[in-house]
Amino acid sequence: MTAAGQPKLIVEADAEALARTAAERVMARIAANPGRSAICLTGGSSPKKLYQLLGSEAWRGRIPWDRVHWFIGDERFVPESDPLNNMAVARATFLDSDAPPGHVHPIPTTAEDPDASAAAYARELQAFYGADRLDPARPLFDVVLMGAGPDGHTASLFPGYAEIEETRRWVVGVAKANVAPFVPRVSLTLPILASCREMLFEIAGHDKRPILTRLLNGENLPALRARSNGETVWLVDRAALPEEIRGRR
Ligand SMILES: O=C(O)[C@H](O)[C@@H](O)[C@H](O)[C@H](O)COP(=O)(O)O
Questions:
Q1: What sequence ranges are listed for the domain Glucosamine/galactosamine-6-phosphate isomerase (predicted)?
Q2: ipTM for this prediction
């Protein structure tokens, strides 16, 4: 985990400390980009503490809302009114109070199917970026937030699924998830997620220990294959660490 190009592992005492470090890193990337900043959010339970922090009185005032745009790396193909909708969680927790509406870019789930929704979001990302080819010298996102599922998926890129190998399309529809909730998904692909200054994984809690152990052992799972063209950071808490590593820290 220390060789060049490898994810950098940062261990925090607990999920609260992890969320604070994640918030500081997001803020540092926004501050380092004096222009229009783009943050790619994620879903599931892992980012909730971070979102709550960013929505708190102390942190809200630190965010330059007028120059930050908020995207999402994957979505469950359910209406925004459904509690399973990833962007709806981010909106309710921190975006709705301060983000200008035009700066929040949800994956549309009103299209006829996940493929149509994926195509629409690809067009939106390309319009924002100003090109349909990514220039390695000009990343699409400042930060891409990620989580790791129990099967090693990340975003909605599941192990063994064809979508993980996609190199051409920016966004793909995924007919059925490998883990609950078993609803269709829409996901950005690895090359698009890689187009960022920092990819930041949040992996916390005892339940994550089995999958973190597999990832640290180098299993070729989507969460290990997802890498930034810039920096990749795995923020983990002690509860998620395998026993033998925990004893050494
Ligand atoms: O829509 C989703 O479910 C996600 O974006 C997904 O990739 C998530 O990050 C992992 O499954 C981890 O999920 P938890 O954070 O709930 O463990």
A1: 14-234
A2: 0.96
